[in-house]
Structure formats: structure tokens, C-alpha cells
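Morning!

As promised:
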Amino acid sequence: DTEVTQTPKHLVMGMTNKKSLKCEQHMGHRAMYWYKQKAKKPPELMFVYSYEKLSINESVPSRFSPECPNSSLLNLHLHALQPEDSALYLCASSPWGDRRGTSYEQYFGPGTRLTVT
Amino acid sequence: SQQGEEDPQALSIQEGENATMNCSYKTSINNLQWYRQNSGRGLVHLILIRSNEREKHSGRLRVTLDTSKKSSSLLITASRAADTASYFCAISYTGGFKTIFGAGTRLFVKA
């Protein structure tokens, strides 16, 4: 199974709502990523988990809260978002790199299209 | 910024023609990867080239890497309408645990 799944596909939420995005992979990958992508822009890294521990937080506002319950699952909890947070949120996984932290090819899910009203 | 720079930003060609897109970067890398994205959906990995490699092929794709010029090129030969997509280079820098994506090239192949 070489697929990364993400749910939901679309999400509309108000600024006072709490919601969660989910990501799952069964490739045995030990690195998982959250990216944010605005229209016609490249993906921007938000978080990296390696071996279920948070390795990188790219100074993401605390209204985004990642969680990695096990090696196959990655969640992104959303609370009190702003309209400018509307974007495509992509999850990816990859085999973990060597001790120097080399990253390798990433497998992406189809994304969650988030609209904050 | 460590973001790779890609050119051209957009490219429109006829089916059957070749398409070339370029990526430049700033410091030492472990590897450089190319991805394709259709219509704002998930990215698909195309090719990874390591810093000690100069050229790789995969089907109609050819990637070159010139570490002296800190640049890479992706060539798509005999393009098809289905190749219409955005193409991103992604750079794994030495000593880093992350991959930085370039700005992307939007390719349109006319049937």
C-alpha cells in the first residue's frame, strides 16, 4: 500500500470552531509532515514528525496543534483559525533519513481544502 | 531564504514537444527532488537525484544536476496533454531535516 489518505477532503469552519484533520499511511514510514499550500504557491512546511516525536515546528501559530498518536497516524487540530488560514493542507510521509537528517522522497496525500469563514 | 528558484514560471508548448524547467539553489545539498502537482491536489514524486549524481532518467523524464552551478534541470520529452501540471523542485540541504520547495513551473501542453 503506497497511499497516504487524508480526511476530510473539504472543510468549512468558523473562526470559533474546533476541528481536526487526519492523515494515515501504512508504508512503514517513520517521518510524517504537514504542509500548507496557498493557490499558485509551493507547499510550506509546518511540522515534521520522526518516530512519533515532533522534530520540526516551523514557527507555526499555536492555533495549529499537531499530534502523532502512532507511526501510521498524524492529526492536525485546528482552533480559532483566521480567514487567512484558508488553504490546502497536505500531509506527507517518507522513509526517515540518515543521522545527518537527510530527507528522501515524500508521498503526499490528496490534501484537505480548508475554508475559514 | 533557502527556497529554490525555478524558471520559467510558466511554459506553454504543443503536444510532442520537449519541456525543460530549471531549478537553482544556494548552498550544499544532500539531494534534489522533482514533484508534479495536478490542479491543486497532492504532489507526486518524480525523481530524486543525489548530490554525487549528475543525471538520472525515468521514462520520458531526464534530470540533471550541476553542483558547481547549484542548478538542476528537468526535461520532459515528447510531452502529452496529460503532462499539464505544476512541477516543483524540492531541495534537501546538508545538515537539514526538511525539504524546501521551489516556487514551481506551471506547464501547459496543448493537444
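The radius of gyration of chain A is 14 Å.

Hope this helps with the figure draft.
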